[in-house]
Records
---
Amino acid sequence: MRVGIDIGGTKTAALVLDDAGSTVAHVSVPSGRGATQVLSTAVDVADRAAAAVGGWGEVEHLGACMPGLVDPVTGWARHAVHLGVGSLDLAGGLEAATGRRPHVDNDVKAAALGAHHSLGAGAATGTTAYLNVGTGLAAAIVHRGEVVRGASGAAGEIGHLPVGSGVPCSCGQLGCLETVASGAALHRMWPRPAHDLFPAAASGDARAREVVATLAHGIGVAVQVLVVTGAELVVIGGGVARDRAALEAALAAEVAARSATSPFLRRLDLVSRTRVLDGDVPVAAIGAALLPGRTEPVMAAG
Ligand SMILES: [Zn+2]
């Protein structure tokens, strides 16, 4: 069996996958703050998940993911700002507590693996992209079961494509996609509670409709970038995607409006390639259990 740990900004979850890839145990608690607490909380949930299936003796494989820069080779995590972690020997700490050397990775990359396993495999998809619309905007791509890393691990960092919004971005550029399509952008454009946005737009509030259109356009552009880069399926998750039906409708309307004058865009078939994640599917923890993904060499395309 495989245990996967997802250390998120608000909660830390651990689940157990059986040999058929089905979830057989799932434990979730509030995340700790600071390196020591973050690690002890992760160890605690993993212990409880393992205990639910008969103890660590039943577990062959351990994986963990968290936000920030996570080096799968050294096992260290850095710059997980929202967890108050400057640096943490994540793999080393988990190994000391559990007796198993875990595979570790960034949470968006693990979520892409989990999304591919949960949704992509059923759709017989070779390349799945996971687009996380959280505080920021980031994506990761899984090709034939393997996370695509790219130069310096930068594959999928589409939030920092300068698309010309004119708003200064935390990365030092001006007008990044993240400045129109992210939780931070939503907070800037819509100072009222985020969950009010879609209902306000539906009841005709002009400002809410404008913000939804801006957000949907930014997410639509992100989906388009991922599809023209090779994704056959784009799975959208993250806090901004919580109102699944409303976001799906807004995206469909945005893509339809742009497609009206573009046979090119109609051929990309963006709407049928996009799924907004059901918030209850713990894709990051599932992906963590499956890390590092497929390890056998992939044949180069002929
Ligand atoms: Zn940027």
---
Amino acid sequence: MKITYYGTAAGEAWPGVFCACNLCREARRLGGKNIRTRSQALIDDDLLLDLPPDNYLHTLYYGLDFQKVKALFVTHSHSDHCYPADLELLREPYTHTYPGQMQVFGNDAVEKKILDACHGLGGEKERFLFHRIMPNETVNIGSYTVTALRATHAKEETCLFYRIEKFGKSVLYAHDTGALTEENLATLHCFSGPLQLVSLDCTQQSKRDGKYHMGLLDAAEQKEVLLREGLADYNTIFVVNHFSHNGGWLHEEITERAAAYDMITSYDGMEISF
Ligand SMILES: [Zn+2]
Ligand SMILES: [Zn+2]
Ligand SMILES: [Zn+2]
């Protein structure tokens, strides 16, 4: 199994679209892994997580190949995770080669945003099919078993994060959420075996949060919770991801600090096989 991180920033991107604070200026000057676009990740070659404004950029520069993507799971409707204008192009005459119907999963707010962007159902029936998914619901798609979990995030909608399993290996992709809840842990306990990879929110880096996002100390605590609960073990790979310029640490500094907790820091284009 493989996860590819295409976008690793919070909503404003880093450097921020409209920001020239010290951390954004420094990111522009240093470049490389300090340049972070907005949230998107791919499991193997065909299960995509989120559809940000930088979607097209990811196809141009990081090899995201939509000819292989069969299913898209959107976490919530915030624009760094759901910017659905591109889906309007998923039909003739804008593409002549997309092979079949993309299966799109998300909550009711995501459904409304996507259908508004695509001017109703006109193109939907041709090239994608929307499925509303609820917290604690599991769906099977191809070789994958995907479970939605309720995120501790925006109150205006039921934000989700996902557990993805394939051939007995599993990933927890938990971004735009605070600390894991009892409900989350109970859902995760419905499945056997430890998670192989856990990707945790680290938007606030140097600051504590736990109620909307997480900082590094929050993420480290959640790692301990998962180990204590037996949902992860000492072979589990832990990644911190989804970073904001408000968190205070450029790539090199967060990498060093996360390594102290035996966690990997994501960067745009990072690929991990496990
Ligand atoms: Zn976000
Ligand atoms: Zn900034
Ligand atoms: Zn959000």
